[in-house]
Design a protein that fits this description.
single chain; alpha+beta; three-stranded antiparallel sheet; two-stranded antiparallel ribbon; 2 helices; elongated
Length: 108
């Protein structure tokens, strides 16, 4: 009987550890996090550290809070007098409002 009780206790401990693991997430100092509960954003985490969520129901979306680079491929455009002009563009940007960014883009 004690062997079955040990197995049952081991299963309970394993389930508890798994639930705690699925209920926590860590936000790095270079990230923002948005908690999505059943498809709707419910919380924005701006500070780094350990946070908690409801497992299986809450989804976490991480996004960078550092300066981002975007460098597009060079292209060619034609002027009004039919001359070719080479164009190369780049931009630097940072997410200042994570919720507005998520609602506008819906991807990261």
């Amino acid at each position: 009987m004690s062997g079955k009780l040990k197995n049952f206790g081991g299963i309970i401990v394993l389930l508890a550890v798994g639930t705690i693991y699925l209920s926590t997430y860590i936000v790095d100092k270079t990230q923002y996090a948005i908690e999505i509960l059943l498809g709707d954003p419910v919380d924005i985490v701006l500070e780094p550290g350990l946070n908690f969520k409801i497992p299986f129901v809450t989804r976490i979306i991480f996004m960078e809070n550092r300066l981002q680079d975007y460098d597009a491929d060079p292209g060619a455009v034609f002027t009004k007098d039919k001359k070719e002009m080479k164009v190369d563009t780049y931009s630097k940007w940072r997410v200042s409002d994570p919720l507005k960014f998520y609602e506008t883009v819906r991807t990261t």
